[in-house]
Specification:
The complex is a heterodimer of chains A (about 120) and B (about 210). By secondary structure, chain A is mainly α. Chain A has 4 helices and 2 strands, in the order αααββα. Chain A has a single domain (about 10-105), classed as Orthogonal Bundle (Arc Repressor Mutant, subunit A). In chain A, α1 (about 10-20) packs across α4 (about 85-105). Chain B is globular and about 65 Å long. The chains are: A mainly alpha (about 120), B mainly alpha (about 210).
Chain lengths: ~120, ~210
């Protein structure tokens, strides 16, 4: 597996960052990933580890914002997708689509019983 | 009343990411178990970012070699026994783990030419503590000193900041090596030379006794 390929959890974190746009920081990304991974429970620590790894791979970039009172006067670290991250996410989505089409084709066009639950 | 993570959690989070992690934990307001789990994940991630596996391997080899050389010099019986060879690996392992943790808890905003020295001193202290019940005192002390001297040039040449370049500006990497003034360099070199001479003298003295 090359360094520009991403695992399933990394895909969820990248998707969360993409969908949250300017409000992508630790807590909001954690909440979004929990929605995407439901019913599986996701810890905040696992999100941090993945964010660090994605940053090392050059797929996301981060910066600190101004401190806010609701966070006890502490700053947020916001995240944004880099071009490499967007490309990796697009490739993952294309692969998932191909898998989905193959499964549908193999089942003769009928809807598979294990249709995944969509996040609310 | 402001509810946030307990003081101990605040101290346990590495300084490089303390600000944002504490803010997030304050917002999430979870239980102590979840706080601790987050801290463990953050520390592991920090260790992964600040430790270069090649440099760690190089340090481990240098340390173990130092212990084997000193044992062959002072107490050759240690090398003939598998338990002795294993005991010789305990202090280097303790020193490597300490160095990795010191790097993880290193604040990248604070630049000091003495940072590599502080890590090595802490590592040597833990190595002595770990080796005390396993190795004869002369082997332990001389090998730890010898190993610490070998660690310094490795850590000065490969500072831990190099492994975490993604999160800090590139100039931090250079400051660590070149911020040492000419006077401080002279003092450090003198101290290192004196230490080396002391270790060689002690080893020679023990051998001829």
């Amino acid at each position: 597996m090359g360094s520009d390929s991403v695992g399933q959890f990394e895909q969820m974190v990248l998707t969360a960052i993409l969908s949250l746009r300017d409000d992508a920081y630790g807590v909001s990304i954690h909440q979004k990933v929990q929605q995407l991974a439901a019913p599986r429970d996701v810890s905040l620590g696992a999100v941090y580890v993945t964010l660090d790894r994605l940053e090392d791979k050059g797929m996301v970039r981060s910066w600190l914002t101004e401190p806010t009172p609701e966070r006890g006067g502490r700053a947020k670290r916001c995240y944004q997708l880099e071009a490499l991250g967007e490309r990796a996410l697009q490739e993952s989505a294309a692969t998932a689509r191909r898998i989905w089409e193959t499964v549908q084709e193999a089942l003769g066009g009928r809807r598979p019983k294990w249709n995944p639950v969509r996040p609310k | 009343m402001e509810s946030g993570p307990p003081k101990i959690i605040q101290v346990l989070i590495p300084p490089a990411c303390r600000e944002e992690v504490l803010g997030d934990l304050q917002e999430e307001s979870a239980g102590l178990g979840k706080f601790l789990h987050t801290v463990v994940c953050v520390v592991i991630s920090r260790v992964r970012r600040t430790s270069d596996p090649v440099v760690v391997l190089m340090e481990a080899l240098a340390l173990y070699t130092a212990f084997v050389v000193v044992a062959s010099w002072i107490d050759r019986a240690l090398l003939l026994d598998p338990a002795g060879l294993l005991a010789l690996a305990a202090p280097p392992a303790a020193m490597i783990v300490t160095l990795m943790l010191v790097d993880a808890y290193n604040d990248p905003k604070r630049v000091s030419p003495y940072k590599p020295l502080a890590g090595v001193v802490a590592g040597a202290a833990l190595a002595i503590a770990a080796g005390m019940p396993l190795l004869p005192r002369p082997v332990l002390l001389i090998a730890t000193g010898f190993g610490a001297l070998l660690m310094l040039p490795i850590r000065l040449t490969f500072p831990s900041e190099r492994a975490q370049a993604a999160k800090i500006p590139a100039d931090w990497q250079k400051l660590e090596l070149f911020s040492l003034g000419r006077f401080a360099k002279g003092i450090t070199a003198g101290v290192l030379f004196a230490l080396l001479a002391l270790i060689v003298f002690a080893a020679y003295d023990l051998r001829t006794r």
